[in-house]
Amino acid sequence: MTLRYNAHVASGTFNTVTAGNAVSGNTLFIGGTYKKAGDVSAIVGLTAATSTITLAAKWQVSNDGSVWVDALNEPQNPASVVLVTGTAAAITKAVPAPQAVYSHKYARCQVVVGVATGAVGDLYSIGYSYRQLTGAQGS
Description:
The chain is about 0% helix and about 50% strand. The protein is mainly β and about 140 residues long. The radius of gyration is 15 Å and the shape is elongated.
């Protein structure tokens, strides 16, 4: 089992992303017949420069890579968690995947914008850390 750290990184800005909308990390193949990834977490780096903006992380799952549904966190916390508010502070957090990701072929982490529209100075980076359980990617 190989440990992958901050792999499959997607990064950019929240420029013109309005409140209630999100940016997505790259798609992570969890497995088909056999589970390919275990102990999954997202490494999320955020800078919130817009004064009232909030940025929250959530997980989504899919079985075909095109239709996505929200994967709620464990029963006591079904909502997305706000990671940073508009203070221009840069943060990096490990966001654990909920158990639901292991019953789907694909998973991804999203960052949802709240309160204000993003600007050029509002930045994100989303990567994944996980244990690669097998070498093949197809099944």
